[in-house]
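*** Residues and shapes ***
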Amino acid sequence: MNEFISLLGQSLNQSPWLFITLSFIFAATIGSFLNVVIHRFPVMMKREWQQECNQYLQEYHSEIVTQIGIDKLNKPIDAFPEKYNLVVPGSACPKCKTAIKPWHNLPLLGWLMLKGKCAACHAPISARYPIIEFVTGLLIATLAWHFGPSWQFVFASILTFVLVALTGIDLDEMLLPDQMTLPLLWLGLIINLNHTFASPTDAIIGAAAGYLSLWFIFWLFKILTGKEGMGYGDFKLLAVFGAWLGWQMLPLVILLSSLVGAVVGITMIISKRLKQGNPIPFGPYIAAAGWIALLFGQQIVDWYLSTL
């Protein structure tokens, strides 16, 4: 087994384009699963919240019944008796509920074979699914080109997969789940114990500085305007990049995310796709800026300093 792994590593090192191609195919397959995560994970969270509220109401009902001695209250009904997670139920057309055949779930190819329509009822299938698969494959292929077969590539790929899911969820729900951001934060601190992307000291300072910098801006903005300018998930996502890349990269991540967010926001307002004053998710811009800093952060900083 060790000899096989050694030979495989040598082959990938000698054939970088083979490694890049295999990385794209593998990542596109993972992108197909990320489509499921983006759609189902917020639903799972909402169901969990509703079940917690339901449990509270049941306990409250029992307490009131005990106090008044008569059961005149309507008991809460179990909200979601059916099983629902990232695996169950199987993929099906949301319109006609026809189960999707395994070969129609092939990344990119499945959507093309179906010509973007359900095989049974011909309802349109969103182009978002192949787009996410293609973008995921492209991002991981870029990591393969940049890092080659290495532990940096493995960890950067894990970060990228979660960032794609977070971006999709934030665009849909304006939500960055703690179940995703916090494990990334701790993973960044752990891998940097071995100086994978930054020193342990820089990673710890980066995690704290990333969170507190946006936390401070949040409260300053709220005190001055009485409004909340961003969510706590944004603080945690910036802390993730502080933990992964070190505190030195945080100014670049904040600057890039602010510039991209401002350009996109102004463009949407001009095109009337967004009314002035309506909130927009900031997480995708932090994710994009952090990913760019992961690959080219030092080169960008060096170029900027050379222009001074």
Summary: The chain has a mean pLDDT of 84. DSSP finds ten helices and no strands in the chain. The first helix runs from residue 2 to 14. Residues 1-126 form one domain.
